[in-house]
Amino acid sequence: QRSLLGLKGMSQPELVSILDRAAYWDAHTEKQVSVLQSRFVANMFFENSTRTRFSFEMAEKRLGAEVLNFTSAVSSVEKGESIYDTVRTLESMGIDAGIIRLKPSGVLQELAEKVNVPLINAGDGNNEHPTQGLLDLYTMRQEFGELKGLHVAIVGDILHSRVARSNLWALQTMGAKVSFCAPDNMRADDIGEVSYISMEEALQADVVMMLRVQLERHAVGILKSAEEYRLQYGLTEERAARMKQHAIIMHPAPVNRNVEIDDALVESPKSKIFPQMQNGVPIRMAVIERALRN
Ligand code: CP
């Protein structure tokens, strides 16, 4: 079984092979193929999603798979059924792979060890979001040709960000330099060798990746004022004008417009935010195919 639980520890050849396969699907003109005909994939989202859920579904359908959509709010989870019992239930019905998004960190590994179908992590707590990391790498490679030597500054709510962690592990493996920039109460102490830099220094990076302020994960009082945050750590139009000419803006979305990034920048020429979403489909095609190939 070829689960994808995270990018930490994934080798450079493995990362490259997924990116290359995504490029193959990206260039594929046929909208739907029958590579996964008669294979059943369940999307199990125990936490809300728009981009990840629908791009997985798009990817599965483009590959010709049969798709089952599970949403916890209208399931027996509401009656107290556990995540494990839910996944085992779908497994016993015959799914071939499961895409799973979870609120808590640290339970996915154990879950994957207990079931026999491959699981693909669609985001687990603040731990990892591997397909987001892969689509981000793909977007950077598309822009710059290679990842080695790039300086990527990840700015904002690092503490609560699975996107920051997945990007960090994969970018370091690929030879890019990653720096973090965050207010003191949004820094993470559990992540290895990364330097924290100022906002001014972050503006000199090749990639300025802004993170969403994740209010739903905050303890009370972490964000005192959205306007104050914007002034200190937001990518304002004035700051973006000081970025390098070739540099790009990224953000995993959803975006808090005029908090971590100014409204006018979201679809500005430097912004790759919508291309990131577009790239989510071929990346997820590559990952699902990897999980189910014989
Ligand atoms: N970037 C991302 O994971 O978005 P969703 O929460 O909408 O899936």
From TrEMBL:
<dbReference type="InterPro" id="IPR036901">
    <property type="entry name" value="Asp/Orn_carbamoylTrfase_sf"/>
</dbReference>
<dbReference type="GO" id="GO:0004070">
    <property type="term" value="F:aspartate carbamoyltransferase activity"/>
</dbReference>
<feature type="binding site">
    <location>
        <position position="162"/>
    </location>
    <ligand>
        <name>L-aspartate</name>
    </ligand>
</feature>
<comment type="pathway">
    <text>Pyrimidine metabolism; UMP biosynthesis via de novo pathway; (S)-dihydroorotate from bicarbonate: step 2/3.</text>
</comment>
<dbReference type="InterPro" id="IPR006131">
    <property type="entry name" value="Asp_carbamoyltransf_Asp/Orn-bd"/>
</dbReference>
<feature type="binding site">
    <location>
        <position position="51"/>
    </location>
    <ligand>
        <name>carbamoyl phosphate</name>
    </ligand>
</feature>
<feature type="binding site">
    <location>
        <position position="212"/>
    </location>
    <ligand>
        <name>L-aspartate</name>
    </ligand>
</feature>
<feature type="domain" description="Aspartate/ornithine carbamoyltransferase Asp/Orn-binding">
    <location>
        <begin position="148"/>
        <end position="288"/>
    </location>
</feature>
<feature type="binding site">
    <location>
        <position position="254"/>
    </location>
    <ligand>
        <name>carbamoyl phosphate</name>
    </ligand>
</feature>
<dbReference type="Pfam" id="PF02729">
    <property type="entry name" value="OTCace_N"/>
</dbReference>
<dbReference type="Pfam" id="PF00185">
    <property type="entry name" value="OTCace"/>
</dbReference>
<feature type="binding site">
    <location>
        <position position="52"/>
    </location>
    <ligand>
        <name>carbamoyl phosphate</name>
    </ligand>
</feature>
<comment type="subunit">
    <text>Heterododecamer (2C3:3R2) of six catalytic PyrB chains organized as two trimers (C3), and six regulatory PyrI chains organized as three dimers (R2).</text>
</comment>
<dbReference type="InterPro" id="IPR002082">
    <property type="entry name" value="Asp_carbamoyltransf"/>
</dbReference>
<feature type="binding site">
    <location>
        <position position="79"/>
    </location>
    <ligand>
        <name>L-aspartate</name>
    </ligand>
</feature>
<keyword id="KW-0808">Transferase</keyword>
<feature type="domain" description="Aspartate/ornithine carbamoyltransferase carbamoyl-P binding">
    <location>
        <begin position="2"/>
        <end position="142"/>
    </location>
</feature>
<feature type="binding site">
    <location>
        <position position="253"/>
    </location>
    <ligand>
        <name>carbamoyl phosphate</name>
    </ligand>
</feature>
<feature type="binding site">
    <location>
        <position position="101"/>
    </location>
    <ligand>
        <name>carbamoyl phosphate</name>
    </ligand>
</feature>
<feature type="binding site">
    <location>
        <position position="129"/>
    </location>
    <ligand>
        <name>carbamoyl phosphate</name>
    </ligand>
</feature>
<keyword id="KW-0665">Pyrimidine biosynthesis</keyword>
<comment type="function">
    <text>Catalyzes the condensation of carbamoyl phosphate and aspartate to form carbamoyl aspartate and inorganic phosphate, the committed step in the de novo pyrimidine nucleotide biosynthesis pathway.</text>
</comment>
<feature type="binding site">
    <location>
        <position position="132"/>
    </location>
    <ligand>
        <name>carbamoyl phosphate</name>
    </ligand>
</feature>
<dbReference type="InterPro" id="IPR006130">
    <property type="entry name" value="Asp/Orn_carbamoylTrfase"/>
</dbReference>
<comment type="similarity">
    <text>Belongs to the aspartate/ornithine carbamoyltransferase superfamily. ATCase family.</text>
</comment>
<dbReference type="InterPro" id="IPR006132">
    <property type="entry name" value="Asp/Orn_carbamoyltranf_P-bd"/>
</dbReference>
<protein>
    <recommendedName>
        <fullName>Aspartate carbamoyltransferase</fullName>
        <ecNumber>2.1.3.2</ecNumber>
    </recommendedName>
</protein>
